Amino acid sequence: SGINAEYGVRTCSGVHKYTDGWDNYYDNAYKMINFWACEFVEAPVVTITIRGCCSSRTCPAIRTWDIYSGRFDVLTIEEATADQMVRSKCDVHWIATGFTCYAPVEIKPIEPKN
Q1: Which of these, 24, 32, 103, 15, lies nearest to 70 by C-alpha position?
Q2: Distance of CA 54 to CAs 22, 59, 83, 88, 91, Å?
Q3: With contact defined as beta carbons under 8 Å apart, do 80 and 60 qualify?
Q4: 13 exposed, middle or buried (CB, 10 Å; 0-12, 13-18, 19+)?
Q5: What pLDDT tens digit does each residue of the chain (114 aa) get?
Q6: Other C-beta atoms lying within 10 Å of the C-beta of residue 63
Q7: Alpha-carbon distance 107 to 92, whole Å?
Q8: Degrees (nearest 5) of the Cα angle 79, 83, 85?
Q9: CA 49 to chain centre
């Protein structure tokens, strides 16, 4: 992870393995990924990719669903089941960049009118 302390910006990354499980959500596969250790104060920008084990078993395209300060959700774009994602060994690789502190706000006194 990278930290730009002057601006309170942090970049975290990880791989959520297929062995950590997938769930079914209607006709799609779903996964919740926690990144509380990154200590973001608001929802970061998250980039995700997916990788499977071999050319004979491809993983479907995925997208972020909800993004919060400590977790995000991943959903397949096309129909897929949790079992298919595990059989294809679909791992989610992610990068999150966000703020670890709130920017200071300068409060200026109101000047009285003459």
Answers
A1: 32
A2: 19, 9, 16, 8, 12
A3: yes
A4: middle
A5: 455 555 688 999 999 999 999 999 999 999 999 999 999 999 999 999 999 987 667 899 999 999 999 999 999 999 999 999 999 999 999 999 999 987 665 555 667 776
A6: 11
A7: 43
A8: 65
A9: 10
Task: Please report where in the chains the tokens 């930290």 appear, as a residue.
Answer: 3
Q: How far apart are CA 48 and CA 94, in angstroms?
A: 4
Q: In sequence order, what are the residues at sequence separation of 6 or more whose Cβ sits closer than 8 angstroms to the Cβ of residue 70?
A: 34, 35, 36, 38, 40
Determine contact, residues 9/96, Cβ cutoff 8 Å: no
| pTM more than 0.85 | no
Is 101:40 a contact under the CB 8 Å cutoff?
A: no
| Per-residue 3-state assignment (H helix, E strand, C coil) for 30-41 | EEEEECHHHCCC
**How would you classify the pairing of strands 91-99 and 62-67?**
unpaired
